[in-house]
Amino acid sequence: MKNFKKTNIAALLLSSALLLTSCEAVQNANNQQKGTAIGVAAGAVIGGILGNNIGKGGNAPVGAVLGGVVGGVAGNVIGAKMDKQAKEIEQTLPGAEVERVGEGIKITLKENMVNFGFDSADLTSVAKANLDKLATVLINNPDTNINIYGHTDDKGADAYNQTLSEKRANAVKNYLISKGISSSRMFAMGMGEAEPIASNTTDAGRAENRRVEFAITANEKMINESQGGN
């Protein structure tokens, strides 16, 4: 079995250095407030670095994960839980690209795994079967938030592709709701053609760009428990 990919982003080191000067501003806050302030700032810094310097797309899920960094001992606890969940997803859904990023998980389901009717937001039977498998893991790990991103290739007008990607992201969300996952855990967003991961000049590249991505992050309950809260 192929192990899930675990990304170590050098930008984390840079962001930590940049944030040292801001820590003084929160020195009188409690530990949770400090962690939140530093985590949000770190995510913003790293998101900017990624957006400006990475040639390929797919940065929306990474930014979502890094924007929720908790850090410290609690971050290590969350990371261990995410390691376990990432392995579960890989075992349950072979073919998914599962990547551990920071304290969260990025999942990419390409067109052969989550696909739709032509020019449609209707999920195919193959897509539903794969989402059924993913839903099983998400139900078994309830203390997470799930961002869903729909992507298209660049054929057609930008505005049309944006709308289509939004409909498809919401179709995935609604299907997962029908499988028992709380709507409050999920946020759906269409990215249109803005974040290609391959060239749009070939059929194979365009097929790669037509995909659905997920960012899985700790919810408030998991963060609280990891910090020793009630």
Please characterize this protein's 3D structure.
- The chain starts with a strand and ends with a helix.
- Strands 1-2-3-6-4-5 form a six-stranded mixed beta sheet, with helices on both faces.
- The chain is α/β, with parallel strands linked by helices and 230 residues long.
- Helix 1 (11-23) packs across helix 2 and helix 2 (31-53) runs antiparallel to helix 3.
- It has one domain: OmpA-like domain (60s Ribosomal Protein L30, Chain: A), CATH 3.30.1330.
- The protein is globular, with a radius of gyration of 18 Å.
- A hairpin with a 2-residue loop joins strand 2 (97-101) and strand 3.
- 50% of the residues lie in helices and 15% in strands.
- The chain contains eight helices and six strands.
Question: Can you identify the CATH superfamily?
Answer: OmpA-like domain
Q: What number is the mean pLDDT?
A: 81
Task: Note the run of SSEs as H and E.
Answer: EHHHHEEHEHEHEH
Strand content: 15-25%
The helix fraction, in percent, is 40-55%
Strand order, sheet with most strands: 1-2-3-6-4-5
Q: What is the approximate shape?
A: globular
Can you name the CATH architecture?
2-Layer Sandwich
